[in-house]
Every structure is written in structure tokens, then in C-alpha cells.
Design a protein that fits this description.
The protein has 528 residues and is mostly helical. It is 63% helix and 0% strand. The chain contains 30 helices and no strands. α14 runs parallel beside α16. The longest helix is centred in the middle third of the chain and has 16 residues. 49% of the residues are buried. About 2% of the residues have low confidence.
């Protein structure tokens, strides 16, 4: 199947099928070979977080998507397969929310809380370390009490502020658990409006350099305040990253009909007037196509002379040569799946669709969530190596459209073995600047704690000198992302040097000050 046809096919691969495949592939490729047998797995299922006997046919229906799997059963899969807690549960809940046909207000708990809600609340408003799993249990407990009154009155704000600050400096599972916790709080009947206001204030204020994910999180929230905030960031953005988050939030807000007619007209004007250029403008053209398809009555206003797009993903401004290169890369990466016990490849059509979405979808969120799903399977190291192999091809590095999506995927799937590749691409003079920017973004996520020696110091000097020479937007964005990498690597010495350097990019100095001002217990919490 052609890569872009596979992306279209992915739209029909619903959330139940994705969760079912996640469970099935982890069982079929489990390290404990006896558990690969469906009857043996079903026989061992009773216990731990699941206190009921299950039949082979029940597990089969879960794993084929014929019936939805209870969240406690997902947790039991983790226990039986000896996977780190939340590997499957957090991924499944994230996929369940993102691919839902309508807004997900909350989800059932994945099991009883290990500690009372009161204890979790006290810990959250204190200076204690709080893990992602703690946040998950805390927000589950609050959602079970939709009319909960928290005292003193500012507790909702304190919770939201800490959760958002930890979320934007977390990574991998700790990030996913906090992002899903934020989604649940945004829809809380009593606290939601306060949480929305905190998100808006932080995205426009001290957290503006991490505003994309904060504003984007509003896409699942149907409260009118969330729609107003998104539209305000589109029309009069507090910064380019907040604007990008607002653009990304609009895909699902349009699909969920969160905007009334007046707001829809505001959205049409904002999208029509957006240039879609620069390092943060990549989602404008896909949004134009999405909005035009959802509301044909505004197609002429949105698209102007561009004309209607022929299918999902076309009309996004992509170079046909780059599309062909991406399709070829998808084919080669997909072929690597067969090296993972080829006689046990689990429904090869599903991972093929996920690889195509990861590399060929024009929507950033679809690329991200497909990568998350693949990362929670035994395919992860093989796919990461395949992405790295693509990035050593000179053709891939020269074509930024291909290099950027490969680097975005490696940012999710990669590990310490790929750190050196990212470092080389981040500073090599022959690498195009958008590619170097994507590589620098990966430095804060792929083995950030493995950054040793003077590489980061040299990278700061390299990109600072480039910015002093031409001061273009891509180089500025690269310096901002490099500050994030410094924070994730706990390089407070270099953050201080940037903060006190009078000739540094002002927004980089602001970012450094923000990192240095984050309380130690929150920085420690975000890693867990």
C-alpha cells in the first residue's frame, strides 16, 4: 500500500482497534514465551489488578477489538508481561482519548488508588515529589468526585499550575501521564474553568516558551472559555508557540463542533490570514484543508485560489519529490518490522499504517500519537534503528521535509544509542537549518541525561554565533530548543551563562531564567 494511502486508511483504524493491537502485539512478542499462547495467557490472567477469571474467547475478543477491554485488564497485561507500570495503560488511555469520535470528559480508573485522595492532594500542594502515577491517581479520584470543593479556594489553581509546569518539562511516560491528567482536569465540572484560565495565563506568561502543548491540550475541552482562549491565541497570539498550539487545537475543536457560527467566522479569518511560514507554521496548510472539508461553505474563504484539496494530506504544500522520498522511507522502515520474529509478526497491516502515519501524515498530532503507540511495543528498538539508518542517508538530510519527520519520530522512539547521531546533525555545518533545528529538539528527549563532556557548550556557541550573524527565525527557534535541552540535562551552569550573556537572544535568556526558577521538587517530579 502506498504510504499516503496508508495514512488515509489509518483514519478508519479506530481507537478500539489500536488499543486491541497494542495488547496483542505485546503478548505475541512477550519475552516470557509461555504467555504468547492465548490459552496459557487467559489461564494466568486472574490475579493482581484483575480479580475475575477470563476465558480464551474473552481475551481474543479484547485483542481483536470486538469488545472493549476494561482498564483494569490493561493494567493486568502490564503485570503479566512484566512491563513497567503505565507502559500500556497510559498509552491506551492517550490513544482512547485522541481517537474518540467526541470529547472524552474522563475515563474510568485503571484500578483502585494506592493512597487516599486526601493524601495525594496534600502531597500535590506541598513541596514533595509527585510522580506521574500519583497525578494519574489524583485526577482519577477528582473525576470520581465531579462536585468536589477544594479548600482553600485557590487549590485548583495551585494544582493546575504545578501539573502544567511539570508536564512541559516531562518526557515519555511521565509526560503522557501528566498530559492525560491535565485533559481530565480541564473537563472537571467544578475545577475545569479554573484550569483553563491557568493554562491561558501560563501559555501567555512565564511558560510561553512551552506553550504549544499547553494550548493544544484545550482541543478536548468543550467549555466555551477554552474555545475563546484558542481563538484569542490565533487572532492575537502571545507568541509563536502559543499560536502553533492554537492551530493544532483547532483540528479537533472543529471536528467536535466546539465553535459557534461567530467563532467559526473568526477562525476562518485567522486561518486565511496566517502565512504558514517559519519554523512554527507547518500546521496552517493542513488546517486550511481540514476546515475546508468540514465546512465547505467557507472553502473559498479559507483556501482562496488554492482550490479544493483532492484528499487528506494533499494540498499541504509538500514537494512531490519529498513526498516520494517519505514514501520510500516508510517502505524501508516498515520492512524492518519483519526482523522482529518474522513468524510472529502481529497483523502486519496495523504497524504498517502506524509507520505511515508517523512519517507521512501532514498532521503533527497524528504523527505523534502513532509514534507513541509504536513506542509501547517490542518493535520500538528496531524502528528506532531503522529511523537512524534513514538519517545517515545524505539524501534524507538534504531534504528537510523528510529529515524533520524522521527526527520527530526518533525523538519519541530513540534511546541512548541514537544520541550521537542527533548531536552530529545538530551542529554539522552542512546540515540545513530546519534539519538542525529538528535535531536540537530531539536533544531534550533522547537520552538527555547522557549528555556528557562539552558538546552542549559547543552547540550553544555554534548556534549563538549563527544567530548573531543572520538572526533568522529558524536559528532563533533552534536556540530556544537548545535551552530546553540544557534544562532537561540539568546543565544549570550553561543556563546561567545564557541568562547573564548580554548578547544572547532575549527569548533564550527568558527561557533560561524560567528553567532556573523552577522549584527543585518540581524538576525532580517531572522525571518520574
Amino acid at each position: 500500500m502506498d504510504a499516503h494511502a496508508a495514512v488515509d486508511a489509518g483514519a478508519a483504524l479506530g481507537r478500539r482497534a489500536r488499543v486491541a493491537w497494542l495488547l496483542r502485539v505485546n503478548r505475541v512478542l512477550a519475552e516470557e514465551k509461555p504467555l504468547r499462547s492465548l490459552p496459557a495467557f487467559a489461564a494466568a490472567f486472574h490475579g493482581g489488578m484483575y480479580d475475575r477469571e477470563v476465558s480464551t474467547s474473552t481475551v481474543s475478543r479484547w485483542e481483536t477489538g470486538r469488545t472493549p477491554v476494561p482498564w483494569r485488564a490493561v493494567r493486568r497485561y502490564e503485570e503479566l508481561l512484566a512491563l513497567p507500570r503505565n507502559t500500556l495503560t497510559a498509552t491506551a488511555r492517550t490513544v482512547w482519548r485522541y481517537w474518540a469520535p467526541g470529547p472524552v470528559l474522563d475515563v474510568d480508573p485503571a484500578g483502585p488508588a494506592a493512597r487516599p485522595l486526601e493524601d495525594l492532594l496534600e502531597q500535590a500542594v506541598s513541596g514533595d515529589v509527585l510522580t506521574g502515577d500519583d497525578w494519574d491517581q489524583l485526577t482519577d479520584g477528582l473525576c470520581a468526585c465531579p462536585d468536589a470543593v477544594l479548600m482553600p479556594s485557590g487549590t485548583w489553581s495551585v494544582l493546575a499550575e504545578r501539573l502544567v509546569e511539570e508536564m512541559v518539562i516531562a518526557d515519555d511516560l511521565p509526560w503522557m501521564l501528566r498530559f492525560e491528567s491535565l485533559n481530565r482536569l480541564l473537563n472537571h465540572r467544578r475545577g475545569g474553568r479554573t484550569v483553563i484560565a491557568v493554562c491561558g495565563a501560563m501559555a501567555a506568561g512565564r511558560a510561553r516558551l512551552t506553550a504549544t502543548e499547553i494550548v493544544c491540550a484545550l482541543d478536548n475541552c468543550a467549555h466555551p472559555d477554552a474555545a475563546d482562549l484558542v481563538l484569542n491565541e490565533l487572532a492575537t497570539p502571545s507568541g509563536p508557540l502559543a499560536h502553533r498550539g492554537a492551530v493544532m487545537a483547532c483540528f479537533r475543536k472543529v471536528r467536535y463542533r466546539h465553535f459557534d457560527e461567530g467563532q467559526l467566522r473568526t477562525l476562518v479569518r485567522a486561518v486565511r490570514d496566517s502565512t504558514g511560514t517559519g519554523p512554527f507554521g507547518d500546521q496552517i496548510e493542513p488546517l486550511r484543508a481540514h476546515l475546508s472539508a468540514a465546512h465547505p461553505e467557507y472553502s473559498r474563504s479559507v483556501l482562496g485560489r488554492r482550490g479544493p484539496t483532492r484528499r487528506h494530506g494533499e494540498g499541504d504544500g509538500a514537494d512531490p519529490d519529498a513526498r516520494a522520498l517519505v514514501a520510500a522511507a516508510v517502505h524501508r522502515v516498515t520492512a524492518r518490522l519483519g526482523t522482529v520474529e518474522p513468524d510472529r509478526v502481529c497483523d502486519p497491516a496495523v504497524p504498517a499504517v502506524l509507520v505511515a502515519e508517523t512519517l507521512a501524515s501532514p498532521l503533527f498530532d497524528i504523527r505523534l500519537y502513532a509514534a507513541f503507540l509504536l513506542a509501547a511495543t517490542p518493535y520500538r528498538p528496531v524502528l528506532a534503528d531503522a529511523l537512524a539508518a534513514e538519517l545517515v542517508r545524505p539524501m534524507a538530510v538534504r531534504h528537510e521535509e523528510l529529515a524533520v519527520v524522521l527526527l520527530e519520530a526518533l525523538r519519541v522512539l530513540g534511546d541512548h544509542r541514537h544520541r550521537g547521531l542527533l548531536q552530529r546533525l545538530a551542529v554539522l555545518p552542512s546540515v540545513p537549518r530546519p534539519t538542525a533545528y529538528a535535531a536540537v529538539r530531539g536533544l531534550g528527549h533522547v537520552a538527555a541525561d547522557h549528555s556528557t563532556g562539552d558538546f552542549l557548550r559547543g552547540a550553544v556557541a555554534h548556534h549563538h554565533a549563527a544567530w548573531l550573524t543572520d538572526r533568522d527565525p529558524v536559528t532563533a527557534a533552534t536556540l530556544e530548543s537548545l535551552v530546553y535541552a540544557l534544562g532537561m540535562a540539568s546543565r544549570d551552569d550553561l543556563l546561567t551563562a545564557i541568562l547573564t550573556g548580554a548578547d544572547f537572544l532575549p527569548v533564550a535568556r527568558t527561557a533560561a531564567a524560567w528553567w532556573l526558577d523552577i522549584p527543585a521538587h518540581r524538576r525532580a517530579s517531572a522525571l518520574r
